[in-house]
Amino acid sequence: xxxxxxxxxxxxxxxxxxxxxxxxxxxxxxxxxxxxxxxxxxxxxxxxxxxxxxxxxxxxxxxxxxxxxxxxxxxxxxxxxxxxxxxxxxxxxxxxxxxxxxxxxxxxxxxxxxxxxxxxxxxxxxxxxxxxxxxxxxxxxxxxxxxxxxxxxxxxxxxxxxxxxxxxxxxxxxxxxxxxxxxxxxxxxxxxxxxxxxxxxxxxxxxxxxxxxxxxxxxxxxxxxxxxxxxxxxxxxxxxxxxxxxxxxxxxxxxxxxxxxxxxxxxxxxxxxxx
Length: 275
Description:
By secondary structure, this protein is of the alpha/beta class.
């Protein structure tokens, strides 16, 4: 465990007015209200969030909602409406809450601050937490990478500053739905590519290799891939593709161009082997 220490950040001027001190309490779901003047509507994505919370509900993963006193004995939900909806579906009638002293306008301001000043968690950080929790999928991905000699990093680092076998593209690996055999071959193939300064194991190329091999099972030969990739330079190809996009003002995505380049290279190699 690490203790908290004051971070050295740019010249700061800490807030002088900290506002009224909040309180903690348990509130009845029946006493909660939504103010449509600032609260968002439940979107299809929001429904998915509610469904996910409902199906995986666990008090250890539940964050107290933020409320403010409203008319009578009711409370306006400033933050946490998805959690409230999930609690209703689970059958919970009281929830832990963080109560702030705020007018309607201040509630709207708090809503904007709470939802607008969020530090998005990186995929590699989520993976690290899931791995520590023993999540089966995360453990399997880590084992697969280790079997191919790939070192997954948990810090943000540009690929040109990594060692050849290092990668932060765990999100790309976890999202591949082509099966472990394809992903393993793809990682091995990327590692067999022409070495360059840094690592070739970017999300762009891991996905391109996975898709190419999934669509052409006849190319799934580890020894052949090792030979075919020896003169394939991902960095050089990516730079050429980028220039092509700029020159032609192409709408093609980098992913599509990478896969197309790879398919062309493998097709030529396969033809040469067959000759």
